[in-house]
Amino acid sequence: MSAATPGFRHLLRLSDDTGLFEHARHALVRRRHGYCTDDVGRGLVVATREPRPAHRLTRLAECYLAFLTHAQDRSGAFHNRLSFDRRWSDQPGVGDWWGRAMWGLGTAAARATAPWIRDEALLAFTLGAEQRSPHLRAMVFAGLGAAEVLRASPDSTVAASLLMDAAEAVGAPSENPAWPWPQPRLTYANAALAEVVIAAGELSDDRQLLATGLSMLGWLSDIQTRDGRLSVVPVTGWRPDAPRSRYDQQPIEVAALADACATAARVTGDQAWQEKVRQSVAWFQGVNDADALMWDPATGGGYDGLTGHGPNLNQGAESTIALISTMQHATRLP
To answer: Where are the alpha helices (DSSP H) in the chain?
Structure first.
């Protein structure tokens, strides 16, 4: 990353030799909240999709991978919450954290520059792929990891099966022209649903499925654009025929949209999708509903949300990873 972007310095601040702390008060780690697999999976995504990682970033990826393999049980499910005294506070399961762990493992298996990281990540991914989740977004996140594996290893039947099951879980868009979305409500990481359908269409050579995903993403992008800038779904969500709140907007929405639009640009070659990625980058740089910079230049941390009074100044793992993820796309824009 260039000097004009936040880089990984706050993510390193939030990490230790065990994993990644979930919360921070402003920039200071809140150790009492411990670690979670959900965030470590996200961290592994951004750490291993760097094409030329510094040594400390490779070490960070190793740490995150070790955390995930420790969290995984013999069935392929994962614990989610580890306290600061290194005790699991839950039983293994297949909630969102399973999906994000699978996304991280799939990305590491496909993109990590260190062969030992790729090998170990693929083993854990393959074990995790024996599971399926009843939760939609867990399946979607796991499907994004499967797409990464399948792009690197087109003959992987394990990844192909998981990806298609994820796209099937999303379902068909509504026939309501005012709400052409497969779910009755927009909640969180919405663009990931469209991205996994796009990926499934691309990698199975299903033109209709690809067109469906692109149409979903186009509508979602349009509904989250106001006066040429992003105004994304807030934490309370949106549904048809109901007033739409503008705040508290979450960085994860912007990052998910950037990821999906970057995938759409690569798959289609249509540069209009690159403009949507630019809007996501601009949201963090202050082109948003509050005209507020959404990261701290002093620390490199991402702010936790955009309120009507400006940013929530806490700089936790989710928002910092969303910032890094979006800025990774900024470095690849033409």
So the answer is: 9-13, 37-48, 55-71, 96-111, 115-128, 136-152, 157-170, 191-203, 207-223, 251-268, 272-284, 317-330
Does a structural domain hold residue 27?
yes
The torsion angle over the Cα atoms of residues 147, 149, 154 and 160, rounded to 10 degrees, is: -50
Helices (H), ranges, 153-190: 157-170
Does 3 reside within a domain? no
116: containing domain: 9-330
Query: Of 107, 110, 89, 95, whose CA–CA distance to 38 is shortest?
Result: 95
**For 101-147, what is each residue's pLDDT tens digit?**
999 999 999 999 999 999 999 999 999 999 999 999 999 999 999 99
Q: Are the C-beta atoms of residues 196 and 166 closer than 8 Å to each other?
A: yes
Q: How many folded domains does the chain comprise?
A: 1
Q: What is the pLDDT of residue 3?
A: 39
Q: How far apart are CA 108 and CA 223, in angstroms?
A: 33
| In a domain? residue 1 | no
Band (pLDDT 50/70/90 cuts) for residue 55 is: very high
CA dist 37 → 41, 139, 205, 239 (Å): 6, 16, 33, 30
The answer to whether residue 4 is domain-embedded is no
Residue type for position 189: A
Helix (H) or strand (E) holding 82: strand 81-82
What mean pLDDT comes out for the span 174-187?
95
Q: Find out whether 267 and 202 touch, Cβ atoms under 8 Å.
A: yes
- Asked if 104 contacts 88 with a C-beta cutoff of 8 angstroms, the reply is no
Give the CA distances from residue 77 to residues 156, 162, 173, 309, in Å, rounded to whole numbers and listed in that order.
20, 15, 30, 40
**Which CATH number characterizes residue 199's domain?**
1.50.10.10
Q: What is the CA radius of gyration of the chain?
A: 18
Beta-sheet pairing, 310-312 with 305-307: antiparallel
Q: Which residue, chain included where needed, has tokens 């690159």? A: 274
